[in-house]
TrEMBL record:
Region ranges (Disordered): 472-492
Biased composition (Basic residues): 476-492
Superkingdom: Eukaryota
PANTHER family associated with the record: DUF1996 DOMAIN-CONTAINING PROTEIN, PTHR43662
Pfam family membership, one: DUF1996
Residues covered by the DUF1996 domain: 34-279
Name assigned to this protein: DUF1996 domain-containing protein
Length: 492
């Protein structure tokens, strides 16, 4: 029989905000498209796309959800399109190359607000502003308790909805949304040995419309970006979408030049992203939001989701439109693709001519100067790595294996262990055996519950440091922190 104490504990658990983390490990494409901002025509900068394969200049719910279309995300019922600008490295001699995006995109669906309501078919939105070129606040952020409780300053919140996380898996991770512009190149060379993670928080307070003229003003941030008070009239609480992409900026350590977002932004403050709802139905997404509340955040723990392999997901791409066939976006090439000027700010960026648009002759596109002798830097990543560097919201880096779970009974210990294993080790190619561990005073990082017959067993998942003895690769010796706090976006 369940004891009163256990029932109380369960009730508490179910009130905790939940989340799930959608891996979209491969891109559907890269190029100058943006069917929200520039429907039907060439976009003024390059994006990288994940999600639905029914994509193109005129993508919308209908094309994404069309029969037979695919998705590059792991959940087959999600054909949503997710995109952000690409990151390039501009050598001081004017040659640019696209920085390698490592492991595609992670899209978090987090429920911070109450009564979370699914995005309807036809819903789309943009977060961030491509023309912003400054961050005006202090670094680091002042304590959240000092932020205005009134969310009327949306520019303040929008600036703080961007994160540039310096990755160094040998050190304690930075929290999510810790800094709101690119670190300097020197800082990155010295500290960000595993690259840079770009983070984008979308607004989650809606006014009931699926879109608006500027594709932004139907949505607003709550007072603390991810949670807090919604502005008046914005009482529809949507899931809090959070994009993470990792870029192998470390490949350019010691090189003379600068990182630039594709719209000519060397500051990072113009980072932005787009979302078109492409779930098979609003009702399906609502059911998923209501049902998939496992604190693990693992999509595998949601019984409604059909999961496809990353290999299958990777076959989902969209055809490059003819108008973009001659774009060399990855480089090496002269200048940014395609002929986009660098605008340093701090004043907002201004519009430039877009090569290939009806009024602009294609001859204004700078020639691509890929020289045969140019070789890309050797990358320290392999494609398999990102799946085990995925993070929980909160900037917690999950690096190579160094977690074990312990609990009060052998049965629950192994259950917790396999629950962790399921995701964390699933696509690891370098880990061949379970790690052996000695457990120094573990911290409890999560609890969860399992029903066995008529008994409810509490699983206490604790974090310990583990030395992997099976595979003595350098990467496997890294320390890892795994957090299972579903409801914390960390210590911001
Ligand atoms: C610019 O510098 C990079 C890095 O040294 C080099 O690979 C590239 O070939 C140079 N580009 C030109 C046009 O000389
Ligand atoms: C939501 O906001 C947009 C932009 O201000 C407006 O056009 C639209 O009418 C609003 N929708 C509702 C349902 O109030
Ligand atoms: C989206 O696609 C699904 C699966 O083919 C279909 O059942 C559903 O009716 C479509 N939704 C809309 C709104 O067209
Ligand atoms: C900072 O950016 C904002 C938004 O683009 C702009 O309104 C403001 O003028 C900029 N500040 C400066 C000093 O240029």
């Amino acid at each position: 029989m369940r004891s009163q104490a256990t029932l109380t504990a369960l009730a508490l658990v179910s009130s905790v905000s939940a989340f799930w983390r959608m891996p979209c490990r491969s891109q559907t494409g890269v190029g100058r498209l943006d069917p929200i901002m520039d429907p039907g025509e060439i976009s003024d900068h390059v994006h990288t796309f994940s999600g639905g394969g029914g994509f193109g200049f005129n993508a919308d719910y209908g094309t994404l959800n069309a029969t037979g279309s695919c998705t590059s995300c792991e959940v087959t019922q999600d054909h949503s399109a997710y995109w952000t600008p690409a990151m390039h490295f501009l050598y001081s001699n004017g040659t640019s190359v696209m920085v390698q995006q490592v492991g595609g995109m992670l899209v978090y669906y987090l429920y911070y607000l109450d009564h979370v309501k699914a995005f309807p078919a036809g819903f789309q939105m943009v977060a961030g502003n491509k023309n912003t070129r400054n961050f005006t606040g202090p670094f680091p952020d002042t304590d959240l308790s000092s932020w205005p409780t009134d969310p009327s300053d949306q520019f303040f919140l929008q600036q703080r909805a961007l994160g540039f996380n310096c990755l160094n898996y040998g050190k304690d991770p930075e929290p999510s949304l810790y800094r709101h512009q690119f670190p300097t190149k020197d800082y990155m060379d010295a500290n960000c040995q595993d690259g840079l993670r770009l983070e984008l928080a979308f607004p989650s307070c809606g006014n009931g419309s699926s879109d608006s003229l500027d594709h932004k003003s139907h949505m607003k941030y709550p007072s603390l970006v991810k949670e807090g008070n919604c502005p008046e009239g914005y009482d529809t609480h949507h899931p809090f979408l959070f994009f993470e992409t990792i870029w192998a900026t470390n490949s350019f350590a010691g090189e003379d030049g600068q990182f630039v977002l594709s719209m000519g932004d060397p500051t990072g403050t113009g980072y932005h992203g787009d979302f078109i709802m492409g779930w098979e139905s609003e009702q399906f997404l609502q059911n998923a939001l209501d049902t998939c509340q496992n604190p693990s955040g693992n999509i595998q723990d949601c019984p409604l989701f059909n999961i496809q392999s990353d290999a299958t997901a990777a076959t989902c791409t969209f055809p490059v439109p003819d108008a973009l066939a001659n774009d060399d976006v990855k480089g090496p090439r002269e200048g940014l693709a395609v002929g986009i000027p660098i605008q340093n700010g701090p004043q907002p960026a201004t519009q430039y001519l877009v090569a290939g648009r009806s009024s602009v002759p294609t001859s204004s596109i700078p020639s691509t100067t890929a020289s045969a002798s140019f070789s890309l830097p050797t990358l320290s990543y392999t494609a398999a790595n990102p799946s085990i560097t995925s993070t929980a919201q909160g900037g917690i880096i999950i690096d190579k294996v160094s977690i074990a779970s312990t609990s009060t009974s052998a049965a629950s210990s192994s259950a917790a262990w396999s629950a962790l294993n399921k995701v964390e080790y699933a696509s690891s190619s370098s880990i061949t055996e379970a790690p052996s561990a000695t457990a120094p005073a573990p911290d409890i990082i999560a609890t969860s519950y399992m029903t066995t017959g008529n008994q409810v067993v509490e699983l206490v998942i604790e974090e310990v440091e583990v030395t992997v003895t099976a595979t003595p690769s350098a990467a496997a010796r890294h320390k890892r922190h795994a957090h299972k706090h579903a409801h914390h976006a960390g210590r911001r």
